[in-house]
Amino acid sequence: MKKLLLIMTCLLAWGNSFAQKKGTISGKLIAENNDALPYCLVKLVNVADSTITKQTAANLDGIYQFSAVDAGTYQLQVKMVGYQNYASAKFVFNGNDLQMQAIKMQSVSKQLKEVSVVAQKPFVERKADKTVLNVENNITATGNSVLELLEKAPGVTIDRQTEQIKLNNKAGITVMIDGKTNFLSGTDINTVLSNMTSDQVATIELITNPSSKYDAAGNAGIINIKLKRNKNYGTNGSVALNTGLGGVKNGPSDLYRHSANLNLNHRVAQWNIFGNTSYNIRTGYNQTLLDRTADINNTVTKFNQAFNRSQKGSGYSGKIGADYYASKKTVLGVMVELGTIDNEQKGFSSANINEYQQSTQQLSYINQNNGNNGKFNNITSNFNIKHDLDKAEASITFDLDYAGYGLDRNDSFDALYLNAALQQTNASNLRNIIDAKINVLAAKTDFTWPFSKTLKFETGLKSSIVKTNNDFVSEQLNNGQWSDVFGRSNLFVYKENINAGYANLSQSWKKWQVQLGLRAEHTHSTGTSVTANSEVDRNYISLFPSIFVKQEISKNHSINYSYSRRIDRPNYQQLNPFVQYLDPYTIDSGNPYLNAQFTDNYELGYSFKEFSLSANYANVKGMITQVSRQNDATKQIEVQRQNFGRADLYSANIYIPLKVTKQWSMQSNFSAMYQDYQDGTLVGAAYQRAKVSFNFNTSQAIAFSKTLRAEVSFWFDSPRIRGVEETTVAQYALNFGIQKTMMQNKLKLRLAVDDVFATNHWEGRMQYQNVNMNIKNYYLSRKASFSLNYAFGNQQVKSARNRKTALDDIKGRTGG
User: Whose CB has fewer CB within 10 Å in the chain, the N or C terminal residue?
Assistant: First the structure.
């Protein structure tokens, strides 16, 4: 009996194990070209009970697998962005391992062939935390440099006098390219942006109030230029060719510009390799007219000066990078970028000098030929690791970066001094030789951990080491021999180490979202004038809190509140104490004792659907500004940067998008500003100036057909002030563009005209203490451009990874 019971027990156990037998269902997903299709979402649905569903993602080889599957009747369902949803026929699974036939996914592009997509992103797009310029498909952006594109953005102005980019009339912008800081400012960053064409750019982001995750540098915020990236698996890319002609008042008629740009991307299996190269050549012209009066000891001297400068430059750039998907959770990447810019400038300046003393008048003239030849080179490299942790949306990243910049430039100044009878009384020949090197090493790591769906924590560390070496030689020709000009030549070495850490905590409720952040930065810098045997050492720690609150009033209404503290450190050239000769009555000098400026930003914003209204207040202490000092003994003007007492800056902005008809859309942006500047000891006396100004920007887009559309835009800036500089005339421009698409949107032909009526120029004045100057500046603003853009390969699906680097959070401060 015992044996019989044992046998029956074994039979029951064996039968039960057979009934509960589990197996594996696997297969492969392929695209229409039979290449593996990774990352698709695959579901295994139990037909008898649809609540019993398993899901997984295909790996890099397009393989999916379901383990421990009970016997039953099932259906496979597959989803992938850019492809039609797939559902298999029902099938019976008996518990034995099953290898399904390969599933070929069908691209949605086949479905879209007969569908006309008229919708187009506007050039200016407002988002909760930033303003985005959609450059890639904008017609009026054609033929523009990035610097010229920024001039069209709401609230952005390009100060042609100080070579500064300003946002809401505030200087101190951090410029990033693909999320990494370019390290340049002033004239040098303007040179780079002038040699970067719109064909290279996808979007430009304007971030006026960054969180603690970003570096605290940048009193006015961040401008992030995102370059185009190619898409999808396989080989694809685009090529763009552009040609144009410009004109400026009193300038030459042959102001041409030509450019070519190539983007390539190859993605297969675990690798994504990408690169681009560009070349451009352009000419320019600038005329500055200056009227200055010096009233000293009953003698009045009037200076009427004209500076005419013609430029010609060419630039090459190239980037290559690769991402390796080591697993579903880990990606490694490397990237190297090289660039070179050659610039040549030829100029002629004249000065008419009238000296009045009681009833007598003395007239004299100075005519000067000047020019420079410069070559700018740069290399940047990045190594990046990103690892997704087991918890959803949890990740850790690490970046190591190196950047090297070099500038070699020779300046020449040949002046003739003439009396009232135009007879030569004197002559001078000067030259400057500049050799500048900048090396940057930076590393950063960021960690993100969501405690729940509504609570997230972010933290990170960053360290950067910067060394600059600026050798400035100024010489004068005497008796056929070049000799050093005492007090002007200088070898300046600057070293800086910034270590930073931050933490952000964000929590969301049904109607509220809150983010609290704190960033700490330790700065140690030394500026050494080897020539003068002097050193300025700084060592300080600063804290930068930030608060962001969003209140959802209803489905279409929300209010945003934000506060952040920012810092602007002097750029490396501003700290260099060298004296640069511009003409016999104008010099420019550095200031090694410049301190950092600090800004507290407060903002309140309201949104109704796409409509937005915001108010901003910024308090700036120690603002770095350009000040002109007049030497009464020599009547010479010395331009220098110094810390201004304080500035209270108020602004309000309203953004109105409007769909007039199905084919016609428009958007308008209006900003009003009140700015109050005060300094108790500016050039030895108190200074206070305040002014109201405003900015208006509107654009219209009209679709005449599926393949033909046009855009018209207009911007207007009223007279304004910043520190001691006052703009006295309004600046405005009308722009027009038209686009024709062909070959199923792969080929785009564009024609654009900027500043149709040539109305954009600058006029201003500086009147304080013993300085009394009026200035006019005419520059290249009206230009016509024609471009051809052709995209090849599969353009439908997933973009290559757009990572940020350790250079993201470092202020570009190498310019002059």
Answer: N
pLDDT tens, residue by residue, 710-762: 999 999 999 999 889 999 999 999 999 998 999 888 898 999 999 999 999 99
pLDDT for the residue 667: 85
Answer whether 638's CB lies under 8 Å from 631's CB: yes
Which stretch of DSSP H or E encloses residue 17?
helix 2-19
DSSP 168-209: TTB--EEEEETTEE----HHHHHHHHHTSBGGGEEEEEEESS
Q: What mean pLDDT do residues 595-606 have?
A: 92
pLDDT score recorded for residue 238 = 85
326 vs 336: CA distance, rounded Å: 20
Q: Pick the closest to residue 427 from 437, 414, 438 (CA basis).
A: 414
Tokens of 491: 């070898």
Alpha helices in 544-641 (DSSP H): 572-575
**Largest Cα–Cα distance in the chain?**
143
How do residues 769-814 score in pLDDT, each as one tens digit? 999 999 999 998 899 999 998 988 765 434 444 445 444 433 344 4
Terminal CA-CA length for the chain: 102
User: Using an 8 Å Cβ cutoff, are 550 and 557 in contact?
Assistant: no
> Strand pairing partners for 335?
321, 382
Residue 359 has a CB neighbour count (10 Å cut-off) of: 5
Please state the separation of Cα 385 from the chain's center in Å.
23
* pTM for the structure as a whole: 0.74
Q: How far apart are CA 349 and CA 304, in angstroms?
A: 11
